Amino acid sequence: MKYEIVHLNRFDYDTQVDQSMNTIRLMPKTDECQRLLAYHTEITPHSLTAQHTDLWGNLVETFYIAETHTHLEVKTTSTVSIQRSPFVDQLTYSGAMQSIFNSQLFRAQYLPFLSQTNYTYVTMEQVQLVWSEIGNIPNPVQFAKSLMEYLYNQFTYDPTTTDVNTVAKDAIELKSGVCQDIAHVMIGVLRAQGIPARYLSGYLYVGEDSALVGDAASHAWIEFMAPGIGWIGLDPTNNVEALENHIRVGVGRDYADVSPVQGVYRGGNQNLDVSVSVTLLES
User: Fold this and answer.
1) Which of 24, 72, 20, 9 is nearest to 266 (CA)?
2) Count of beta carbons in the 10 Å neighbourhood of residue 210
3) What is the largest CA-CA distance in the chain?
4) What's the pTM value of the predicted model, to 2 decimals?
5) How far is CA 118 from CA 58, 216, 253, 261, in A?
6) pLDDT higher than 80, residue 250
7) C or N terminus of the chain, fewer CB within 10 Å?
8) Nearest to residue 226, comparing CAs of 97, 119, 46?
């Protein structure tokens, strides 16, 4: 599958702004299943970006605007090719995988993705309620799949009930929110189960006559580590494995590590409008 992604962030300020310093994480990744073919950033007022790679392997662009302005636009255009086949349902969980999963070396290696953050923390009472609903499943692959289905059935996708600051322990009580909230809840429960899990930010191609949701802006899903296999992507918002419709951009412990746009400036309040377009070029 080949896609073109156009992502536009427009900031409108109440008063004139100057000394604006910003970082963006909007460049899709290149990995074993996904290839970035082209990428371009346009910033208005005009500014050049400097690039570096962060701790989690994400490409970060920074830029500075010294002139006064009342509007800021950050537009990125990407072309991406993806070839990813269904995988998780074909896994056979072996005794050797269980031995790896229980080893101290495995836990030490993935400690950052086993430790709860402010975004992913869920209480033990909340975790126990989930356990009581989906049962005791020692197989981490099957547990992750069952948890995804459980959250898909429990949550109502509603952008009006939460915001970017909502944390997992509140979202799980609301049983409502957006992909960011559902991903944080799933990560929190997986980590409480001892399964390394990380947050994925990117884009979702919905296409025509699709039941998938979450394409209005950046999309979020999770990856969990299957012992001896590697990271496997699951999308609890849609109850599907993350495959060719999921375009990977950022990876981290939670949303804070992969926020698409961050910045500081001197001036008045701001209003942000985001638009994302994902177009299929070749199937």
Assistant:
1) 20
2) 12
3) 63
4) 0.94
5) 21, 26, 10, 20
6) yes
7) C
8) 97
